[in-house]
Model the fold of this input.
Amino acid sequence: MHFCLLNIYQLSMKKTFTTIVGLSTLLSINTFGQNVLPIPAVVEGSSITLTLDEGVTEFYPGVETNTMGANGALLGPTLILNQGDDVSIEVVNQLEDTTTIHWHGLHVAPSHDGGPHSIILPGTSWNPQFTVLDKAGTYWYHPHLHMRTAEHVTRGIAGFILVRDDEEAGLGLPLNYGVDEFPIAIQTRAFDADGQLVVETNLDTAVVVNGVVDPHIDMPAQVVRLRLLNGATQRVMELGFSDDRTFHVIGTDGGLLSAPVALDRYRLAPGQRVDVLVDLGADEGQDVQLMCYGSELPNAYYGAAQPGMGAGQTSSLTGYTLNPLNGGDFNVLEIHVVAATANPITNIPESLASLTPIAESEADQTRNLTFSSASSMMNLNGPFLINGASFDMETINYNIPLNHTEIWSLTNQTPIAHPFHIHDVQFYILDINGATPPPALQGLNDVVLVPGMMGNVRFIAQFSDHADPNVPYMYHCHMLYHEDGGMMGQFLVTDPNNVSEFEQSIAGHWSFFPNPTTGELTIRTEFPDKFTVFNLQGQEVISFLVDGTYSTELHLEAGVYMLSDSSGRSSRLVVQ
Done:
């Protein structure tokens, strides 16, 4: 049993960060998977409840690891939504900690987006409601609490969101969830000598897929669809199959491409998703491995043998050279090919979705963002900055007019690549280091990997549908340590034609104004209720009872707060 290697570490490294599965991962590189890959349960419909709670997971027999999950001890169910549906999601926080839930990639209003301003206090709930505007595609959800995102995601809260639409339904693609369509969340994790998850370490040697190590799965001898998510905290993955077979990329973050793209490798950064078709029709009775080819990653990507540009930089990342995954090839998933289903998909379609890329000439404005280090230019540890600044919850970096079309130009002065994610919009990549993006990146995206050492990416997007003068959207590096360390900014989308956006209405039950306020606050409510003002650390600042209309003078320091009713519905409150 691989786990017996733990005792060796416990004797010599009890007080240091170790990976109890580091050697077991190395040993399993060329062995069959030991654990059946679980397929997350499905939640559908217009009314959904997600309960966040703490639990215990046995990644290895007999070792109990403390984890977090949604509707379970680890990870969460797959939400299947239909384009055009009105959806209400009740997120119940039974954790001991404040958290948030972000609907990564979905185009929703900022108050429902689940960024760090939409905190969910312990014992309360949050009820975002929105119309599904996105195209068919692979999205996901995860916590987004400022400076705690890496911890909450590492401990296990994450899940898929699959959006369906009529266009996808008519393409003859695999759509039988868990039969010929498989959600595959790939994460790398580190454990200490007691079997507990470690957040801040480069010893992420445990490969965890859908919540298990050493996974295997039966797939039918036909065309199957893999919805691949890089849910790692920072590792970039060069994915392919053990026999170097061709697979077809049919979609990226924001949905389907216009046509399949045949590849034998795909580079997937943290936060990114890729939708692929694999033809197993001639492989019944055979085994094939989904692999990560770290040996093929070029320098300046986390996961390569050399994560920065320049010799000797690995020494600045504690434990990096001890990690056998870095610069190495390893199994992700063992696939056993079994008999085809009764009505198999056997062909790869020639064309897919209808896309209308935005022409560069349509841009109203170009914004320039520069990534840098807070210390030396060659620093790999961070903290990293955007335009010379670290994230400040009270600073709005950009104010974007509703329906603006913008080009964002991202220049990376650091020695390591950063996956840049923007909330609210999907974008089209215009160029990477001045070159047209490859066909597999010419669809809609919400994460883009920006190369190091003066690498540049330009993308174009339209900021439509949602305007809010108070609640911002985020943009940030999706290497979660970098995000928590301040590599993040925020922007408001505002309607210049609306001059009455001062009263914030909460689900029709209550409203308040003005916001921002210099001190005076008025709350109107249908029913008597208790209201509480919290700071952004979740600490109560002041509370009061309201029956009808209530005005008060807030004697608070300038800053950002949350105003919440007794049921946990809350909104951002700015005191100037």
Q: What stands out?
A: The radius of gyration is 24 Å.
